[in-house]
Amino acid sequence: MVLLNTALKFQLRMQILSLGGHLAVTVTALADPAPLFCDWAPEWTDLALLPALRLGPPPCSPDTKHLIDSVTDCPFESLRLMKFANVKSLARSTAAVRALVRFKLSSEEMRELIARARSGGDPDAIAMEFLNAHPKKERRGEVRVVVMVPSVTAREAYQAPQLAAAAELVEADLEAAGVPRTARLKVELFDDKCDVRQAYKYMLNALGTGEYGALSAVAGPACGGAFAAVARQSPAQLLPVLAYSAQAPAPGDAPAAALLAAGDARDAAAALDALARRLAWRRAAALSEPAARAALDPSRLHLALEVHLDLPDPLPDDDGQIFIEWARRVAAAGLRVVVVSAEDARVVRAALCAGRGAGLLPGAGAAWLLPAALPPAWLAPAPADRPACTLAQLRQVAQGHLSFAPYWLAAWRNETDRSSNPLPAPHEIAQRQSWEARWHPRCSAWARRGGGAAGGAADCARAGPLPALLYDTLRLWAGALDRVLSARPALLADLHDPDIVRSLVDNATQSNFSGLTGEFSWAREGAGAWRVSPLVLLQWEDGARREVARWRRGAPLRLAAPRWHTPDGAPPSDGGDERCALRPLAELLRADCRAAAVALAALLLVLAMAVLAAAALHCKRRAERDYMARLAALSLRSLPAKADGLDRWEVPRERVVINRKLGMGAFGTVYGGHALLAEDRGWTAVAVKTLKAGATTEEKLDFLSEAEAMKRFDHKNIVRLLGVVTKTEPVCTVMEFMLYGDLKNYLLARRHLAGGALVDAEPDEGADEVSPRRLTAMALDAARALAYLAQLRYVHRDVAARNCLVSARRVLKLADFGMTRLVFENDYYRFSRKGMLPVRWMAPESLTLGVFSPASDVWSFGVLLYEIVTFGSLPFQGLSNSEVLTRVKGGHTLELPPGLKPQLEDLIKSCWQQEHRARPSAAQLAACLSESPRLLAPCLDVPLDALPLDAEPPWRAPPERAQARWLSWAAPAPAPAPAPASAPASAHTDTTYLSSEPRDTDRFLS
Fold this sequence. Notes:
Blueprint: H1 2-9, H2 23-29, E1 36-38, E2 53-55, H3 75-78, H4 87-92, H5 94-102, H6 107-118, H7 123-133, E3 141-149, H8 160-177, E4 183-191, H9 196-206, E5 215-219, H10 224-237, E6 241-243, E7 258-260, H11 267-278, E8 283-288, E9 304-310, H12 321-332, E10 337-341, H13 345-357, E11 367-369, H14 391-398, E12 402-406, H15 407-412, H16 426-448, H17 465-487, H18 498-510, E13 514-515, E14 518-519, E15 522-525, E16 528-531, E17 535-541, E18 544-551, E19 558-559, H19 583-589, H20 593-633, E20 656-664, E21 669-676, E22 683-690, H21 697-711, E23 721-725, E24 732-736, H22 743-749, H23 751-754, H24 772-791, E25 794-795, E26 804-806, E27 812-814, E28 821-822, E29 829-830, E30 836-837, H25 844-849, E31 851-852, H26 854-869, H27 881-889, H28 902-911, H29 922-931, H30 959-962, E32 992-993
Parallel strand pairs: 1-2, 3-4, 3-5, 5-6, 6-7, 7-16, 8-9, 8-10, 10-11
Antiparallel strand pairs: 12-17, 13-14, 15-16, 17-18, 18-19, 20-21, 21-22, 22-24, 23-24, 25-28, 26-27, 29-31, 30-32
């Protein structure tokens, strides 16, 4: 009509034909030239598929005053109906996409909508009135729950026909009740076979199916290992997990949205701990499956499991030998409390049979704790049982055993103490009977189809507690779906949204739900929750269980009067006192044998310490008497007390006795002797470093600056200053004595040990002196000393083997602080005056700019590592000091010997980085060496510096050559006179004057 009215209005010459279903044929026949289509939106209709030119209506701006009279200048535009949507909103909501696609208007609805639009008014109000007048007529959707049931499995854990029948029954009951109201609940059964791989595979495959969007939750699996695999996938797939058997929350960073309807399995560990404290049990034996390990959670069970067998999965085919060996170990350890935590009845029977063979019988004082949620025929032997026992033998071991069960489970099996619990109401009894009447035929049908272990219709004789709990759990979840989806029906399309999952879990746990297994109260932890229920301690006698105690979180265990089957009828002990040799002491102390053993050990320790102290005091006093007698024989007078007013480091000269010369240093002579540092400490072996007579003021300042620096040091790897003598000439310092002298001579003397050339020695004699562990420990000591100096903002400037001393315990200590300087805010010290410096150990910036810093000490430490692994070889062997100076300034370093460990080679090279900021700190070096205690190993494939036989010995060398030898004050060495300050470098020294010109003869002997 619109086209006809337009043709008449504009007096168009045209012929109007009604083609109907012949439009496509006509257009194909008129293909040349192509016909022209005029439509409101031809690109969105079937016309777009035809070979024709498409033309939309021309743009037009109608006069709104004519709309009320159905008269318009734009007949095409005014009659267009288009769907508008927010693209971003559609991307976030699939429900909005479905609503937009399904939105259609019939002819009558179109005319009504046009009439409403022409009546005037607010367009939004008109649209809302139209939608209210025509409510949505949408078919009922579907929401799914997968129930994982172990149907085909060799494990005797759960009765699959009973569980499958309960799942089918809940679907039928919910369909009859119309719950949920907005969707139909579909229960899907899946056989997980009690296999972790099957459950995990299902969770992965569920993402690729078109039914994943309607999947609201997974119920199960019943087996613990498979449940843990599903629960770990729950956070990633935003899929709640409903547990209808006792499980523990799955570990992981992202908590699973799990509803543990059977309770938290870790509560059994806490209840067992309360029972152990009540009966004074401190030790026990345990056998557990990985699936039931939560019942022995160590954070809640503080019982010492001295013999614990965690079974592998699957069980090994060893004819039960693993159980027999476990029982023998339990009996050998004298344990009497035996805990079995397992789901599989075969494991429980094997443990009981093996325990019987080892003598772990109730009549012999053994106490067994077994699982409570086992199948009804859990004690009936099977032909494949290994080890095998008869039913009578198994009943003999199981007689009187204890089990912890949730109250709802014990109440379902009528095992609770009715004297302390109200009887079920008549409507509760009727509800259970009605449910079992509807459940039984479904269970029998499943049993006939072989949906479970061999048992046939006998499996359905009586409904167990787990099928009833599964029924309650699914009803609880259906109620949560009904309440959430009724309030917001569009959420049906977004069941895996995090907020919706959280809303469903919150709604399920906050509802006052009461089912076949009683009322549900919940405790929350993270995204999940577990059912709160007291645990009932049951005792099994002659095939029946009875309640003997009850436990609840935060409350003590109320133990009634169990019937113990021990020989004396008393509660069984944990076996700790049976082999106790301290029973008389325990009876005297009125404690057990463990407390008596601890008391005896403490007493013996105190006595040993007293004896050692008395012996040490006796030896000290005898040594003092002998020493005083020797002084009297030498006609020496007794020493006066220290004068008041002296510096605390000042030691009277009368308290220092020297008896031998150790060597000659740059400042004077070094002696060995003894010093009386305190009246109550006796005489101490010391090294006395003296300042030569006639020393200049500058030498005195240098000598005292070394002593002043050492006063500030207190570290186990730095030689300690014990005192100073400055009031009288000659000035001297008193330091701790180092038995083995300097490290260089120590290594040179043991070089033959590193090469394995032990002539008359025992097979292992001296091996520890040159072992990698010993060498690495010495390097670690030096690194720690440098780290300590760097922490105090000191730079040593002369780190070398000759300045590292070895104590009697072979602890390496850094010495010779004559060149040590304090650094300030710039963390470096600039050397500005002429002097003698060890060029072979110095860093490039020190040689070039005279700058010293902790990083330059790290360079010297790398050279020290070279000295240690080569056992005292001279760095840059064969080069003169001037050649070394040129070489190091040119960016070259020492050539490392072959055979070094790659890690050690990298460590040394890192110390020799040209850029001082790139070198590691001393603390980092110490950390690296501590992590590799055998890093340094001898590398003797290098030439060793030596003196020719025709050369004069060092003790007869001229003064100008002796000056340059840099002897350590604590090591035996020659004692020549010092050379003038302007003496040139010697060919036999490892130091040179930076201010002197090198000579052509300045070279080292090979």
